[in-house]
Amino acid sequence: MSFRGSAEASFVQHLFRNYYEKHYNNPFIPTQFDRREFGYMLFGQKIMVRHLSFRSFEELKKTLAREAPLHVYRSAAVYQYPQAPMEEKGWSGAELIFDIDADHLETSCKQVHDYCLCWGCGTVLESKASKCPKCGGGDVAEVNMVCEECLNKTKKELEKLIDFLSVDFGVEPSEMVISFSGNRGYHLAVCSDQIMQLDRAARLEVVEYITGAHIELRLHGFSLTSADRSGPGFEDWGWGGRISRSCRSLLERLSARDEEVRRKLSERLKPKDLDNLAEVARYWRDSPRWDLLKTGKRSPYLETLINFAVAESASHVDTVVTTDVHRLLRLADTLNGKTGLKACTVRLEDLPCFNPLRDGVVLDGEQSVEVRVFPTPSFKLGEESYGPYGNEVVKLPVYAAAYLLCRGLAMLAKR
Prior knowledge:
CATH architecture of the largest domain: Alpha-Beta Complex
CATH superfamily of the largest domain: DNA primase, PRIM domain
Radius of gyration: 24 Å
Shape: globular
Strand content: 15-25%
Number of strands: 18
CATH topology of the largest domain: DNA primase, PRIM domain
Number of domains: 3
Number of helices: 14
CATH class of the largest domain: Alpha Beta
Structural class: alpha+beta
Helix content: 25-40%
Distance between the termini: 20 Å
């Protein structure tokens, strides 16, 4: 979606310019700054301004204050000539980039805040259609909101990613840069001399390990045959220990009749099979009892349980992003034009208490503005809850109005 008109775009651009002029202080600055490519999208434009380089942060800051762009990007790579066309840049290495987005995760909340809307008459549609059944108009679009449940899920995926990087790959906290995307997830960049030189094939191996793709269980201490009743322990390193701990957690949740676990496992197992599995939980508290899953009536369930444990333990990152050695990613601490929120850098020690829908709010919260809001479900922003709204004029704090304007869900009441 985009702004409903030029008045809305101009209003938000004024807010962005004020941020870059007065509040864009002490932001994240990539290493080897003058060897990075930068780019940005301007309000009202669909083509990115690319192949830019800056000699200093001050030069970049002046450009952002002058242009007040909708989105700002920087390269994961460092180049000999960052301002040159791609084939002439002279690639010298690239950070290892990870992108975690709520769009790629299964969350029940999407049923509540994702919907289709006719912009012509404001009718909410049950499903995507080429024309509105009420007014016959063709201006129908999907609306994808975000909530605390979405972002808590992405944070859990981020925490799993950090564990993989630090424990399995030995990445130091000082080598990781974590940032909120400003919308639906998180970015993590790893920068070290060794990492910078990884080629695409090596990056693919890293991401396949982290996502559990093509995992060979025998290499991690597993045997699915009844002849070998042993298996990895809870404290074992790597995937073996992860799967063991995940199996214990899943069995405990089955025993507690966790609806989500039962629903997912019921795709492969019958209700009575789930009850049989749940009986094992009390024997798994101190150490894994693989023997109870490799013999008797429960042996057919083992592979299903382990596959589910792999999916639960993996970090669901975007493989395409990680393997792209020329990737542009959002510059941390700039504003996201889809929400008006700040793409905050997050220190590792601050991650547990970081709330993106609170900490990402940096636009004016003291002034208010009247906006005409299209049908919008309730949402949280800052310390407040807003909505639900339905084709009505409301007075909102500037940051909340900007959030809806950026999403195309509101228009200025006075144009």
